[in-house]
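Reading a protein record of the kind used here takes little practice once its layout is understood. The reader may check this reading against the record printed directly beneath this paragraph.
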Amino acid sequence: MAFLVSGILNCIYCTVIAQLSAAIPATGASYRYASLLLNPRVGFLWQLGMIVSKVTLALYALSFAQYLAGLIPGISIPGAAVVMLTIFYVLNLVGLKPAAEAQKWLVCIKISALFVFVLGGIWAVDLSSFVSMDAMVPNGWDKMLQAMAIVSFATGGANMAAEIAGEMKNPRRDIPLAVYIGTIGSTILYILVAIVAAGVLPISQVADQPLSVVGKAVLPQWAYLYFMIGGAVIALCTTMNSVFQWVTKGMLVACQDGWLPRRLGEVSKRFGTPHYCLTFFWLVGVVTIISGITLTNIARIGFGILLCIYIIPVVGCAFLPKKYPQQYRNAPFRLKPVTLQVFVWLTVLILGSQAFYTLKGLPTNLLIATLTIMVLAVVYVVIAGRYVNMSRITQMDAEDVARHPVASD
């Protein structure tokens, strides 16, 4: 139920992103949209929130270690997490091109392994787990709403396609298709996985446990090993690798624009990689791992911050018809002005609610720390904004948009 509802809500969010991308596709889309449609300060606030949210690198590393422990009992989970995080940090530090090329094939293996889990376990599902609301919502609606908010990150990742519009041949057409197909496809896959994960064994046995518990109970040995290696270990490796590949892009833009020290954005002369930025994110991951924060709370912090900053470009979309009338009018995907406003403010409500319920479940100390970081981010933007050339940033944003000619009527 949580995946289904979050998928439907993310389709509403997709509509706003599709409208923005169809009208003014841009590299580093959300940063550009916030700067162009609202204000460069707000644009950097979005970027700063994205940087802070990457505590989720620790989430992927710890999840990997948990599944590895299912194959190699007795290993240190924090130790294995730090080692795996370091391996992908080093690979991206030296600019290993084969790792990027292998990414697409590893994703295919990951998806096939998840289907092995579904097909191998669907026959063992106890349908009584889904026939009543008491069974579907065992801990009350408040917990269900928190679950819907937390899993929204899983069904909403397709929206990130908008961030690389500058590398696409036809972004005005392709991004709206990608965000809808990606969101609907991932939602269906996650629902199927969740039915098996929650419906085979009693909830008391699978709560807060990795999928390996159910996989071991229903899959033959060969299928279990394929699922563990392909659907868990490789899946999390590809995720960590892909995050390291793109996570520095926004920080580099912020360094170039003057929001962050330019030295931080320096590129290695030997490997051509942003070594200082990569090291920064590696340190964020390592510190989070050794802090002892639980997986669920890392997810709440990282994705709670993301949900908050996602509101920024959505609000900017409300000003699209007025600020860029020609691009809006000629977009291949276009909502009527009134309909667009409805989608914009409905999305703001959805994201705000998801952020509230995601952060609500945090322990008081972590909630205070997270809110403090968000306040400090705002303070930093206000202070740094006094020394940044706003007109230069706006001009650069406009030039980036101009690289995509307006489609003819």
Summary: The chain has one domain: 2-402. The chain has 20 helices and no strands.
